[in-house]
From TrEMBL:
The gene is kduD1. Its EC number is 1.1.1.100, 1.1.1.69. This is 2-deoxy-D-gluconate 3-dehydrogenase. It is an enzyme of class 1 (oxidoreductase). PANTHER family: PEROXISOMAL 2,4-DIENOYL-COA REDUCTASE (PTHR43296), PEROXISOMAL 2,4-DIENOYL-COA REDUCTASE [(3E)-ENOYL-COA-PRODUCING] (PTHR43296:SF2). One of its GO terms (molecular function) is 2,4-dienoyl-CoA reductase (NADPH) activity. GO terms for biological process: fatty acid catabolic process. Keywords: NADP, Oxidoreductase. The lineage of its organism: Bacteria, Pseudomonadati, Pseudomonadota, Betaproteobacteria, Burkholderiales. It comes from the Bacteria.
Length: 263
């Protein structure tokens, strides 16, 4: 998404927890697109740090025109095995952290009477639910509700909120946490491609193109919508991870070790 927007001339501010990863991403965007890219290392679970950093951007760089909420945390687990800390690790990022950022940016726009656009990344499981990732499913459903609610509350101020509900866009980090390749698991990437009506999984280009469309300055009547971007997968196949019902205790132990090893 950042690459697509940078290619269209956007100044990009990247947030994340790890400075080295941010620097690497910024360097790639500068090199490929000649873009103006700035990075800010922080954890969105810290509401005070979020407010400070939003202030800093406004003071040093001027107002943002758009916010993309893409931060998330997730791993597969039987819900009865989750600790309260595990529940918080996910919901504090996805549910609370996204609210902190949206509120901090919205406050600036409102105080200055500026228009703005918020695009939140959810998942198709806001419609289907999702077994074995219940804290994520609950939190993403909350963001879907935030999108609809604030679209109405902040629409009169020229601030619009929309969301994309992507299907499977494979990345190494997500695969290690969500699809650890337990033996006999039919949920391989190849099988997911064959099951998808479009016979492929998603790509960064897919979501970059839709994000650019939804944030485009000429698109100001699009408000309060969550657009599914999955090649029709959820319509054909419903919720993810249903076949994990067959996993044994050993499979779950292995999945946990792989997710923790991905850190
Ligand atoms: C069970 C786990 C666990 C696991 C952590 N915990 N990993 N429990 N299975 N695999 C528990 C820990 O035991 C601990 O509880 C608590 O969670 C907090 O763990 P920490 O390691 O201290 O958490 P933290 O450092 O905050 O790490 C956050 C994280 C981590 C979310 C747990 O995985 C992370 O940083 N992930 C990177 C981002 C990410 O997940 N990206 C994928 C997003 S995919 P106890 O009780 O032991 O103290 C996504 C949806 C996409 O969001 C859908 C695509 C289809």
């Amino acid at each position: 998404m950042a690459g697509k927007l940078a290619s269209l001339g956007a100044e990009v501010h990247l947030w994340g927890r790890r400075e080295a990863v941010l620097h690497e991403a910024a360097a790639a965007l500068r090199e490929t697109h000649g873009a103006q890219v700035f990075t800010h290392a922080l954890d969105i679970r810290d509401a005070a740090a979020v407010a400070r950093q939003v202030d800093h951007i406004w003071q040093q760089h001027g107002p943002l025109t758009a916010l993309i909420n893409n931060a998330a945390g997730n791993f597969v687990s039987r819900t009865e095995d989750l600790s309260i800390n595990g529940f918080h690790a996910i919901s504090d990022i996805v549910f609370r952290g996204t609210f902190y950022v949206t509120q901090a940016v919205g406050r600036q726009w409102i105080a200055q009477g500026l228009p703005g656009a918020v695009l939140s990344i959810v998942v198709t499981w806001v419609d289907t639910g999702a077994p074995f990732v219940v804290p994520s499913a609950m939190s993403k459903a909350g963001l879907d509700a935030m999108t609809k609610s604030l679209a109405v509350e902040w629409g009169p101020k020229g601030i619009r909120l929309n969301a994309i509900a992507p299907g499977v866009i494979p990345t190494e980090g997500a695969s290690q946490r969500l699809r650890p390749g337990i033996e006999g698991n039919r949920d391989s990437a190849r099988q997911r491609e064959l099951d998808n009506p479009m016979r492929r999984l998603g790509t960064g280009e897919d979501i970059g193109n839709l994000a650019a469309f939804m944030l485009a300055p000429g698109n100001t009547w699009l408000n309060g919508q969550t657009i599914t971007l999955d090649g029709g997968d959820a319509l054909a196949n419903g919720a993810y991870f249903t076949d994990y019902q067959a996993w044994t205790d050993d499979d779950w132990a292995l999945a946990k070790a792989m997710a923790k090893g991905a850190r």
